[in-house]
Amino acid sequence: MENKRLWLFYALITTLFWGLWGAFSTIPEKMGIPGNIIYVVWSVSMIIPGLIGIILFKWKIQNNAKSVIYGLLIGLTGAGGQLVLLSRALREGPAHLIFPIISLSPVITIALSLVFLKEKSGNLGVFGIILALGSMVLLSIIPSNNTTYGNLWVLFAISIFFAWGIQAFLIKLANQFVRAESIFFYMIVSGLLLVPLAFIMGDPEKPAAITSNGLLLAFGIQTLNSLGALCLVYAFRYGKAIIVSPLTNAIAPALTVIISLIIYQTVPSVWVFTGMGIAFLSTFIFAISDTT
Q1: Minimal CA–CA distance to 285: which of 173, 169, 133?
Q2: N or C: which terminus of the chain has fewer CB atoms within 10 Å of its end residue's CB?
Q3: In sequence order, which residues have a C-beta less than 8 Å from that of residue 261 and are 6 or more positions away?
Q4: Is the pTM for the entire model greater than 0.85?
């Protein structure tokens, strides 16, 4: 496949894995596994694609200071956001308000890429970006259950919003001088470094019902997320951050809705249904426009 379209290939693979992950991600917690333990499972699952790369593709990890620093910054912003989301944000606040905030993290990525990387896109590409951002808003509209929450969740949601937006920008920036496999290796290391903190952030008032079957299921589901993260790094290597970031963040939720519709027979609202259509339209626009 020509390099011009490699970004699209990896971006679509990312959305496939993340769409599947989103459809099944709530199952382990419903089985009684707390969010902080799910984070631990996720950090371990990141090792799987790393081992595949090292064994099958003979990855050579860069260990110079610049690679290590950027790799850890990327890893800590991503893993830190994941830890806050699973261990605190979803415990303190409603998912239907948290996810709309963090799903718009590409706004940060686009702004930083336009200013510091001087990325540009044609009129068709700009239209696709606007559609993708709009679809993310529509896909995040979920009816409220009228439950009363405090205000702490807002701080957590905003911190994740910035962390993941900055992480995506750093991935694109680092790809100019750090190989994708090295970036992912340090993402693995960062995730594991935060494991002790995950145990500390557990909820002592919520009894856990951890079973081997639940852990294995959680591991399989989180591996989908990890494989998607690996493909995302490669998507940023070959594509523009202002395109890759909104594309993956728009299509993955749309796929989640479709998969959930098939498996759980859940009917999406008119807003979500409209967002799905706009998301797939933005993908078509990105595919036919000159966005590399």
Answers
A1: 133
A2: N
A3: 267, 268
A4: yes
